[in-house]
Amino acid sequence: MNLFEYKITTHPAEAFREMVYFCSQEGNCSLERVPLDQIAKIESLLNERGQKGWELLQVAFGRDGILAFWKRIVAGEQIDTMR
Predict the structure, then answer these.
(1) Interatomic CA distance for residues 1 and 57, integer angstroms
(2) Which tens digit of pLDDT belongs to each residue from 54-83?
(3) Which of 3, 21, 65, 67 gives the lowest tally of CB atoms within 10 Å of its CB?
(4) Kind and range of the H or E run holding 67
(5) 63 CB-near residues (< 8 Å, 6+ apart)
């Protein structure tokens, strides 16, 4: 069985100022529209992390930006499940 490591990254709203997402007072957020250049920026972020072995688990949108949750296999580490 593989071992994993996890990472949480933050991305300020200013980095995605063209991306329109709305957050209600209760904290519920949704995407309204995403311009093509912003899609390219997100793709670049995903590909950059993916090249380093990170898999995106979840993204949370908030008023101040985006929180991304990642995981990857710890190289050469495995758990012996036969014990």
Answers:
(1) 19
(2) 999 998 877 788 899 999 999 776 666 665
(3) 3
(4) strand 65-78
(5) 13, 23, 29
